[in-house]
């Protein structure tokens, strides 16, 4: 038992004493951020769903339905169900059947940037720009990712965002302070070069989840990291 504890303690100490760049290779969250923040060959974004992006993948062709024969009930292919989207519905005027169309749902947005980027929910005390322990834990994979050799040649914009609770002016000032706090933390804790990080605040001007005024939403209280090139 004692030997197991000693080995676990030694492993934890070895991880702590690693450089952030080496730690990133052992941290799945950091590796995921590296993939999201590193431009793909040809300048395309990697692993990011972009608002307004067009899916160039051709849709699968719809099965050809035989023309209905007057006085004959339409046949249903074996093994299919009449329930759910695409099921035939009766036309009250002619009595014939026609397939319904499924309603397309809008894609879930991950960021509000069309560059390689990632949104991270960072916990702050109400009205404060001081990082909480939960915020530091959320930012640790980002610090390791930015310190890695994979991203060493890039600069990043740290954007502070808020939800719509409070006035626009207060949210703007608060987002600026919070973005600056994140930048300083990454510099001090992970040794990211100051000239690689630019901090700006965007208040509630770029909501990830559109909401009415005075609406609390955790997904809108976030820090977005955007790759702005070398």
Describe the structure.
A four-stranded mixed β-sheet has the order 3-6-4-5, with helices on one face. A two-stranded antiparallel ribbon has the order 1-2. The protein has helices at residues 2-17, 20-24, 28-37, 133-147, 168-190; strands at 88-90, 97-99, 117-121, 155-161, 197-201, 222-229. The protein contains five helices and six strands; from the N terminus they run αααβββαβαββ. The two termini are 50 Å apart. The protein has 230 residues and is α+β, with helices and mostly antiparallel strands. β4 (155-161), α5 and β5 form a beta-alpha-beta unit. α3 packs across α4 and α4 crosses α5 (168-190).
List keywords for this structure.
alpha+beta, globular, single chain, two-stranded antiparallel ribbon, 5 helices, 230 residues
Q: Strands, helices and their partners?
A:
Elements: H1 2-17, H2 20-24, H3 28-37, E1 88-90, E2 97-99, E3 117-121, H4 133-147, E4 155-161, H5 168-190, E5 197-201, E6 222-229
Parallel strand pairs: 4-5
Antiparallel strand pairs: 1-2, 3-6, 4-6
Helix pairs in contact: 3-4, 4-5
Summarize the structure.
With 230 residues, this protein is of the alpha+beta class.
Q: Give the low-pLDDT segments.
A: 44-59, 67-72
Order of SSEs, N→C? HHHEEEHEHEE
Number of helices: 5
Q: Helix/strand/pairing class, anyone?
A: alpha+beta
Structural shape: globular
Q: What is the share of helical residues?
A: 25-40%
Q: How large is the share of residues in beta strands? A: 5-15%
Note the gap between the termini. Answer: 50 Å
For the secondary structure, the number of strands is: 6
Using only CA atoms, what is the Rg?
25 Å
For the largest beta-sheet, the strand count, sense and barrel status come to: 4 strands, mixed
Mean pLDDT across every amino acid position: 77
């Amino acid at each position: 038992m004692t030997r197991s504890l000693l080995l676990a303690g030694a492993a934890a100490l070895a991880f702590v004493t690693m450089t952030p760049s080496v730690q990133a290779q052992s941290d799945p969250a950091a590796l995921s951020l590296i993939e999201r923040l590193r431009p793909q060959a040809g300048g395309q974004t990697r692993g990011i769903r972009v608002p307004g992006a067009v899916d160039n993948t051709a849709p699968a062709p719809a099965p050809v339905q035989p023309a209905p024969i007057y006085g004959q009930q339409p046949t249903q292919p074996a093994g299919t169900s009449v329930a759910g989207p695409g099921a035939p519905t009766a036309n009250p005027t002619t009595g014939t059947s026609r397939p319904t169309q499924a309603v397309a749902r809008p894609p879930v947005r991950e960021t509000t940037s069309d560059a390689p980027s990632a949104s991270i929910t960072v916990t702050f005390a109400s009205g404060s720009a001081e990082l909480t322990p939960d915020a530091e834990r959320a930012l640790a994979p980002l610090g390791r990712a930015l310190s890695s050799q994979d991203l060493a040649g890039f600069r990043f914009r740290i954007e502070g965002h808020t939800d719509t609770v409070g006035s626009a002016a207060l949210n703007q000032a608060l987002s600026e302070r919070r973005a600056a706090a994140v930048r300083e933390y990454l510099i001090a804790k992970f040794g990211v070069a100051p000239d690689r990080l630019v901090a700006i605040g965007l208040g509630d001007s770029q909501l990830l989840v559109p909401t009415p005024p005075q609406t609390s939403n955790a997904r809108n209280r976030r820090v977005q990291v955007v790759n702005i090139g070398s």
